[in-house]
Amino acid sequence: MTKSEELTTKNVNEEPKVEKKALTANVEDADYFEDGEEIGDATWSEVIQTCCCHSPQEWFMILVGLLSICFFLYFFLLGLDLLGSSAKVIGGCTAGTLLGDDTNPIAALMIGILATVLLQSSSTTTSIVVSLVGSNVVPTRQAIYMIMGANIGTSVTNTIVAMGQMGDGDQLERAFAGATVHDMFNFLTVAVLLPVEAATGYLYYLTKAMISEESVSDGEKWTGPVKKIVAPLSKKIIVANKKLIEEIAKTNKTCDNFYPISCEDDSNPTKKSCSKVGLIGCDKSSNECPAFFSPKASRNDDEVSGGVCFVISLVILVICLVGLVTILQKMLLGMSTRVIYKATNINGYIAMLVGVGITILVQSSSITTSTLTPLVGMGVLQLEAMLPLTLGANIGTTVTALLAALVSDSINSLQVALAHLFFNITGILIWYPVPFMRAVPLNAARTLGKATRVWRGFPIVYIIIMFFIIPLLVLGLASLFEQNTVGFQVLGTFLTILVFLGLVYLVYFWFYKGGKQQCIDSLELRQRKRAAIQELPDDMEYLKAKVLALSEHTGLPEGDDDEDGEDKAVEADTAEQAVDGE
């Protein structure tokens, strides 16, 4: 058999396998999203037998796998820590200015979203807001709306992490659904409680009644054990100066007031020897300055350093995510889906307590949800199990604000921290206990997950629109009403009416004029073109092999037709030149 025939036979034999694999993936995925109960329930004896009955060689491989998971998980957490620190360096000046503004409820909500997206940490945002309230810079009622916005903004991190599984359509669909179930819960809770709070002051008066006779005393800031493990290495790379953000929010200072940096010894800068630092600071515990710190840096230099560190952190996250997923897939290879779901299918309220405990340990709901998102993508965690873990993470992250309030002497700061806690508790009471209500965020997340099937670039568009464009647009409109000039207020009213009419038309076009189907068709066409371009080299090789096999089968000499065609083309060109000459 010739080489071409072997290639042709290989390609022909491979085709059914590829189609079968794709079909199987789609069916499994459809089962996962359409009805999670179709998978048979395993018994606990099967789970124990699968997990605990292994040969010595298998136990050794499991130990190696667990050590590898710990290795990648450590650097995954390091990447998240660096991501947050570098985001604070890049957006610290803007976030500080935003948080210091005195605005209306809608604008305060948008400020909370944007500040948290820029800082990549709701814990940092809430701590700063609590500090601002304690300093009487921001009113308590306005701070409650900022806390609501921080709850929404924190969900952008795990949505970014979900994009790390873009290489596999099945995993991306499940991971994006697992990430956005956090978004959907936060959006829905704000949609209900924002108007209720604006109309009745529910959270304000509830928390005010709770702390009316209480006093707050100074306390030490508690750092979770996981943070203590990751922080020593991350602080050798970059340290964000959080005091700069607070100072900008509390006073009329700008970032430029913190430059030039002042250090006694530029060749060996330390925390104690530098009296004034910019966006990048030094580590208080070790008295050392990080690698990205430069005593001669300008504001622009520090922001560039933050951008470089941001890119590095994303690379670390992607590498560790790929490593974690690969190892977990190999460890779970051959294990029944029934057994996996049984092992991870615990009572929802117990799962909430687990989410609370994990988040208190890592001091970040973003880390908790970002670590769980890849497990949903792999199918280890069902979407129904991810929701209560996410809700528990929302409760756990309020501990940071409560601890920040204990460091302050202000009753108002404790009130804001409690409002954050009861905002999340109220949201859980609305959306989780009743199955019908619970299905709302779950179905919304499933729909967003399915959108990645239509077009894999959808997560990027979703993040840009939901966390940047809409908050900026609404903040711009709300700020017009804060101006004392009638002209700005009239302009704001006119633009608001235009936006409202545009939204009404968009809804009408989407549901009644076939807009939804047109959008789906357009995105599917884009995805097909992208897939066709990627597969074009393989298709060309396949066609060449087919033509070569056909030529050998029919006995036609190779290249003769091409040579005859070239000769005819040359003769035609010569004749045409002769005619032109005449």
Question: What oligomeric state is this?
Answer: single chain
**Global shape:** globular
Unreliable stretches covering 5 or more consecutive residues: 1-39, 214-220
Strand residue percentage: under 5%
Q: What order do the strands of the largest sheet run in, or round the barrel if closed?
A: 1-2
Q: Helix-strand pattern, N to C?
A: HHHHHHHHHHHEEHHHHHHHHHHHH
Largest sheet: 2 strands, antiparallel
Mean pLDDT: 78
- Alpha-beta classification: mainly alpha
Number of strands: 2
- Helix count, per DSSP? 23
Cα(first) to Cα(last) distance is 56 Å
Share in helix: over 70%
Structure description:
This protein has about 575 residues and is mainly α. It is built from 23 helices and two strands. The protein has helices spanning about 5-35, 45-50, 55-100, 105-120, 120-135, 140-155, 155-160, 170-200, 200-210, 225-235, 240-250, 300-330, 335-345, 350-360, 365-380, 385-395, 400-405, 410-430, 435-455, 460-480, 485-510, 515-555, 560-580, and strands at about 260-265, 275. The chain has a two-stranded antiparallel sheet. Helix 20 runs antiparallel to helix 21 (about 485-510). The two termini are about 55 Å apart. Mean pLDDT is about 80; it is low at about 1-40 and about 215-220.
